[in-house]
Amino acid sequence: MPDSKAILLAITELGGYPDFTSLYKQQGYEVVKTDSVRKAVKLIRQYKPAVIIAEFNFQSDFRDRTSSLETVLSSAQGVSDSKMIVFYEPECQHQYARFLERFSVFSSIPFPVDEKDLQCVLRQALVE
C-alpha cells in the first residue's frame, strides 16, 4: 500500500446501484465523487486520479459519440495515467463493444456489479 493514498474519481451520472465508497476506501483509495461529466473534467485536471470509475450510458442522440464516457477519457489523456473502470448494462453490450474499438479501459464490469469482482479489479489497479 502506498504512503499517500491513490485518488479514485467516481462519476455517477445515472446511478441505480450501491454506493461503493466504503469499498473504495477499504481498498486504500481517497475518493472524489461527482455526478456530472462537466465536473469530472475539472476534477481530473485537479486531482489526476489513479482510477476513474464511470458508467457507460449509451446515448443514441449523439451524432459523433456513443456516450459521455468518451469525453471523460479524452479529458484524461495527457493529464493523468488513470485506469478506467467502466460499469455497463449488458443490454448495451453491442454499443459498448463499438466504444471499446476506439477506447481502451482497464476493466469493464457489467451490471449488476459484483462487489467481489470490483474489489479484485481495484486491487489490481493499485499494483499495475
Write structural notes for this entry:
- This protein is α/β, with parallel strands linked by helices and about 130 residues long.
- The protein has a single domain, classed as 3-Layer(aba) Sandwich (Rossmann fold), CATH 3.40.50.
- It is about 40% helix and about 20% strand.
- It has five helices and five strands.
- The protein has helices spanning about 20-25, 35-45, 70-75, 95-100, 115-125; strands at about 5-10, 30-35, 50-55, 85-90, 105-110.
- A five-stranded parallel beta sheet has the order 2-1-3-4-5, sandwiched between helices.
- Helix 2 (about 35-45) packs parallel to helix 3 (about 70-75).
- The mean pLDDT is about 90.
User: What proportion strand?
Assistant: 15-25%
In total, how many beta strands? 5
The coarse overall form would be: globular
Counting DSSP H or I runs of 4 or more residues, the number of helices is 5
Radius of gyration: 14 Å
Do you know the CATH topology? Answer: Rossmann fold
Helix content: 25-40%
Order of strands, main sheet, comes to 2-1-3-4-5
The succession of helices and strands, N to C, reads: EHEHEHEHEH
- Unreliable spans are none
Q: How does CATH name the architecture?
A: 3-Layer(aba) Sandwich
CATH class: Alpha Beta
Residue-averaged pLDDT: 90
What is the structural class?
Answer: alpha/beta
How many domains make up the coordinates? 1
Distance between the termini: 12 Å
